[in-house]
Write a structure and sequence with these properties.
By secondary structure, the protein is α/β, with parallel strands linked by helices. It has 5 domains: about 1-195, Rossmann fold, CATH 3.40.50.300; about 215-295, Rossmann fold, CATH 3.40.50.300; about 295-360; about 370-465, no CATH class; about 485-535, Roll (Membrane-bound Lytic Murein Transglycosylase D, Chain A). It has helices at about 1-10, 20-30, 45-55, 65-80, 95-105, 120-125, 140-145, 160-165, 180-185, 215-225, 240-250, 255-265, 275-295, 295-315, 320-365, 485, 505-510, 515-520, and strands at about 35-40, 60-65, 85, 110-115, 130-135, 170-175, 195, 370-385, 385-400, 410-425, 430-445, 450-465, 490-495, 535. Strands 3-4-2-5-6-1-7 form a 7-stranded parallel β-sheet, with helices on both faces. It has a 3-stranded antiparallel β-sheet with strand order 8-9-10, with no helix packed on it. A hairpin with a 2-residue loop joins strand 8 (about 370-385) and strand 9 (about 385-400). Helix 17 (about 505-510) packs across helix 18 (about 515-520).
Length: about 550
C-alpha cells in the first residue's frame, strides 16, 4: 500500500516523495484510525487526505468552512484529472441531488461540504447510500473557536458517525493549543487519542523591523534592493492606490479603478475581487512606467534606420565606381535629414522625461504645509534623585496641499521620539509616577525639498502616587471548587455578553478569574457591553 501512495503522489502531483509527517498521517487514516494532524501553513495538509482518498474505495467527505476554499480545491483537483466536487449555497437543489447521486455511483472521489450541510435532510438521506472511505475535517480548530457560539454546527460533526459507524475521521489544522487539540478529539469522538505534529519553525523566513519616519522612501529603497518579485501589505485597500502612484511614478484616476474592476470581473474568472482588479491596475501602471523610461517606438525605429545607413555607407566607402559614389551621396543626404529628425524627437523625449521627474519629485515632496497636529505617548518615567526622566513619542500628522497632484490634499504621519528631564522636589522614592498631557501645540515648516522641521510645546503633569495597604475584606466564605463539574467544562469557550453581565459574575460562572478573561481577550479594562464576544479559557485542570 505504501508504494501505491507514492505512485499516486508522483502520478497526480509530480512529487518524488512525501514531506515531513505526510506519510505518517496517510498511513494512520488508511488503517482506519481517527487521526489529528498539526501542520503549518504550506506544510501540505491537502496531500494527507487527497492521496489516501484516491487509494481507497468510496468517497472522501471533506468538511471545510469557506466556499472560496472549496471552489479553489475542486478546480485544482479537476485540473489534475481527479473526480472532485463540492456542495455549497450557490447550487440549486437539482444540482445538489445530482452531485450526491454521482457520489453514490462512483462519479466523485472527493466531496467538499460545509458543516451546516451535514444536518440537512437531503444530505443525510443520500449519505446512507454513499460508500464513505473516511471523513476529513479541514481547519479543525474552528470546532473550538466557532463551535460553541458562532457556528454550532461544528459541534454536531460527530453526528455523522451515527449514519456511518466505523468510518475514521481525519482532522487537520495549523492552529491549535494543547487545550484545543484535546477539545477537537473529544468533540469528534476519537476512539483513542492519535496526534501527529510537525514543527512550525520556518527556517526560510526571516523577520526584520525597521523604524523610519519616511515610510514611502524606505519602501522604494527596499523595492530597489529586492531581486525579483515582492509583496507589500497595507492596512487598507485605499492605501494601495497611493503606493502604486509613488512606486510607478504615475497618477491613477478614479475612472481607471472603475474600469479595472469592471474588466477584471468580466474576463478574469479564476480569481476574486478586489485582488484581481488591484493586480490589473499594478500591471497597467508598470506598463506605463516602462513606456516612460524606454525609448519611444518612433525614435527607436529612426535610430535603427540611421545605424543601418551608416553601416551601408561605411561598406561602400572605398568603392570607386560611379554607382557606389552616387549611392554614397544619397546616403549622406538621407542621413542628414534623419539625424535632424532624430535630434528633434530626442529633445522632445528628454523634456518629457524631465517634466515627469519634476512631477514625481513634487509629489514625493508633498507640497505646501497647511496644518500640523499631533498626540503625545509617554512610554516611560524614570526616577533619578529629585528629578524624573520622561521618554515617549510624538505622533505628528502633517496635512499638505498640492493642487497639481491627485488627490490635492494628503496627510503624512510621523513618529518622533523625545526625552525630557523634569524636577520634582517633594515625592517618595517608591511612589508610582505617571504623566498626563494637558496641551500640545505643534508648528512645522519646510526647510528643504526633502526635510520638514517640527517645533512645538507640550504641557504635561507628572503625578506621584504612593501606595498604602488597607484591609478591605472583613469576612469571606471559601467555597470548594467542584472538580467533577470542572472536568466537563471545555478548555476554551465562547461567550456573548448579556445585559447586566460583569466580568466578575462571568468569571464566577465559569470558575475562572476576571484577569484571565481580560488577558485572553486583550482587554485593557473590565468594561464590557451586551453583545460583546468573549473567549473564556479553562483555569483549573484535574
Amino acid at each position: 500500500m505504501t508504494d501505491k501512495f507514492q505512485e499516486i503522489l508522483r502520478t497526480y502531483w509530480g512529487y518524488p516523495d512525501f514531506r515531513g509527517i505526510q506519510r505518517d498521517i496517510i498511513e494512520s487514516i488508511s488503517q482506519g484510525k481517527d487521526t489529528l494532524g498539526l501542520m503549518p501553513t504550506g506544510g501540505g495538509k491537502s496531500i494527507t487526505f487527497q492521496v489516501p482518498a484516491l487509494a481507497q474505495d468510496g468517497v472522501c467527505i471533506v468538511i471545510t468552512p469557506l466556499i472560496a476554499l472549496m471552489k479553489d480545491q475542486v478546480t485544482h483537483l479537476k485540473e489534475r484529472g481527479i473526480l472532485a466536487d463540492a456542495i455549497y449555497a450557490d447550487k440549486s437543489r437539482r444540482e445538489i441531488i445530482q452531485t450526491l447521486e454521482n457520489c453514490i455511483f462512483g462519479g466523485v472521489k472527493i466531496l467538499y461540504v460545509s458543516p451546516e450541510r451535514l444536518s440537512t435532510d437531503i444530505f443525510q438521506t443520500k449519505l446512507r447510500h454513499i460508500k464513505v472511505s473516511f471523513i476529513t475535517v479541514d481547519e479543525a480548530h474552528c470546532i473550538s473557536q466557532w463551535g460553541y457560539d458562532f457556528r454550532p454546527s461544528y459541534l454536531k460533526i460527530s453526528d455523522i458517525r451515527k449514519l456511518k459507524p466505523g468510518t475514521p475521521i481525519l482532522a487537520l489544522t495549523a492552529t491549535a493549543t494543547p487545550e484545543v487539540v484535546d477539545d477537537i478529539q473529544n468533540q469528534l469522538q476519537f476512539s483513542e487519542k492519535n496526534v501527529f505534529k510537525m514543527s512550525f519553525e520556518r527556517k526560510n523566513l526571516a523577520y526584520i523591523v525597521r523604524i523610519t519616519t519616511d515610510k514611502h522612501g524606505e519602501m522604494v529603497h527596499i523595492l530597489k534592493c529586492v531581486q525579483g518579485s515582492a509583496i507589500i501589505y497595507v492596512r487598507s485597500r485605499r492605501r494601495t492606490k497611493e503606493r502604486f502612484e509613488i512606486h510607478h511614478g504615475v497618477t491613477i484616476q478614479d475612472k481607471a479603478l472603475v474600469s479595472a474592476s469592471t474588466l477584471s470581473n468580466r474576463y478574469i474568472t479564476d480569481r476574486y475581487l478586489p485582488d484581481k482588479a488591484i493586480d490589473l491596475v499594478d500591471e497597467a501602471c508598470a506598463t506605463i512606467r516602462v513606456q516612460m523610461d524606454s525609448v519611444p517606438t518612433n525614435l527607436d525605429k529612426l535610430t535603427r534606420k540611421i545605424m543601418k545607413l551608416e553601416i551601408e555607407k561605411e561598406a561602400i566607402k572605398k568603392e570607386k565606381d560611379e554607382l557606389s559614389k552616387k549611392r554614397k551621396e544619397q546616403i549622406t543626404n538621407e542621413l542628414k535629414d534623419l539625424k535632424e529628425e532624430e535630434k528633434i524627437l530626442t529633445d522632445s523625449w528628454n523634456k518629457e522625461k524631465e517634466l515627469n521627474k519634476q512631477i514625481k519629485d513634487k509629489k514625493e515632496d508633498g507640497g505646501k504645509i497647511i496644518y500640523t497636529c499631533g498626540d503625545v505617548i509617554v512610554d516611560e518615567i524614570i526616577q533619578k534623585d529629585n528629578k524624573v526622566d520622561i521618554e515617549g513619542t510624538i505622533s505628528v500628522q502633517i496635512m499638505m496641499e498640492d493642487k497639481d497632484a491627485m488627490p490635492p490634499i494628503t496627510v503624512s504621519h510621523h513618529d518622533i521620539p523625545f526625552s525630557y528631564q523634569a524636577g520634582m522636589d517633594k515625592y517618595e522614592k517608591d511612589s508610582e509616577l505617571c504623566g498626563k498631557v494637558n496641551n500640545i501645540s505643534l508648528y512645522s515648516k519646510r526647510i528643504s525639498d526633502k526635510e520638514i522641521s517640527v517645533n512645538g510645546t507640550i504641557k504635561m503633569e507628572i503625578m506621584a502616587k504612593s501606595t498604602t495597604t488597607t484591609p478591605v475584606v472583613i469576612n469571606a466564605d471559601v467555597e470548594k471548587v467542584p472538580k467533577e463539574k470542572l472536568k466537563n467544562i471545555p478548555g476554551i469557550t465562547g461567550y456573548i455578553v448579556k445585559e447586566g453581565d460583569t466580568l466578575w459574575n462571568i468569571a464566577k460562572r465559569f470558575y475562572t478569574t476576571a484577569d484571565s478573561i481580560m488577558e485572553a481577550n486583550n482587554l485593557e479594562n473590565d468594561m464590557i457591553y451586551p453583545g460583546m464576544k468573549l473567549i473564556i479559557l479553562k483555569l483549573y485542570c484535574f
